[in-house]
Amino acid sequence: MSSVIGVVVCNHNQARLFKANSMSIVSEITDLVNPDARLRDQDLATDEPGKYRGGGPGGQHHAEDHRTTPRDKAAANFARDIAAAVDDMIATHQLEKLYIIAETSMLGLLRPELSDRCQKLVADEITKDVVGRTPDQIRDYLPTPL
Fold this sequence. Notes:
146 residues; Nucleotidyltransferase, domain 5; 5-stranded mixed sheet; 7 strands; two-stranded antiparallel ribbon; alpha/beta
């Protein structure tokens, strides 16, 4: 009996989840799109940083220091959504192995969001942005056999 393998292909804009066997990608299970990825930063957040009243003498006002951009927050939220979809895929299709192909920064956001169960199934991580490729082209980036 051939094992059931999952392939996750993602970047900040889109994530595609595939089911595969040892030789080929069989079917695309889901296609997630990050609606916030195409918005401008000013459309993702308010115009000014948040303000708060300090506890010092005279109750000085301070502006919050935002080192994380709205785009970064949107990408982190999307990574959480991808991890949840991968968890569902593992449960629904009883995957035995998982491959992740992702752009470098998205892979960094995705790793900590994956559950322990997901992390144990990861056979390999490939840092490439191939989300727009066909399943056959994506298959070329994976080892043979899977």
